[in-house]
Amino acid sequence: MEIKVELQVSANEVFEQLLNSIIQDVKNSTSQTIAKNKLSKGFAYKKILRSNMGYDVTVNVQINELIQPNKYSATIENPKGTNTIEYTLRDTLKGVEITYKENYKASSNLQNWNYLLVSLIYSRRSKKKMRKQFAYLEQQILNAKNIK
């Protein structure tokens, strides 16, 4: 899946929110507080996610790339496959253009075919959900600016 959105905020502001979100995820998953300057390529941690079937799955999260304020990429690996997410940010005259990419590679060919079929069916819904999340992120940043 790939989507592009434009927000009326800067790349620095979006990246700052992204880093804060990662730090909070690390804290929720490991009970450890990590400084922003410790987040870099190769940083990894384990977390527990609830599967669609209702059981807990331990996943490994690893940062592949972190170039402030332009790019963030991470891999989430579970026993059935690997999900890679990537955010690319570019400042524009009106704000920031964000390109979000998500790719899944299953551990078996059958699971890959299943993923392709399901992603075709749910692609529109997934993109709509991500657009809403970006709109919410934009609103959070704008609200924080108004409070200051």
How do the helices and strands line up, and which of them pair or pack?
Blueprint: E1 2-7, H1 11-30, E2 44-50, E3 56-67, E4 71-78, E5 81-91, E6 96-106, H2 109-147
Antiparallel strand pairs: 1-6, 2-3, 3-4, 4-5, 5-6
Strand order of the largest sheet: 1-6-5-4-3-2
Radius of gyration: 16 Å
Outline the biggest β-sheet.
Answer: 6 strands, antiparallel
- What are the low-pLDDT stretches, counting only 5+ consecutive residues below 50? none
pLDDT averaged over residues? 92
> What structural class do the secondary elements suggest?
alpha+beta
Q: Per the principal axes of the C-alpha atoms, what is the gross shape? A: globular
In percent terms, what proportion of residues is strand?
35-45%
Number of DSSP helical runs = 2
Distance between the termini: 36 Å
DSSP summary, beta strand count: 6
Helix and strand element order: EHEEEEEH
Helix content: 25-40%
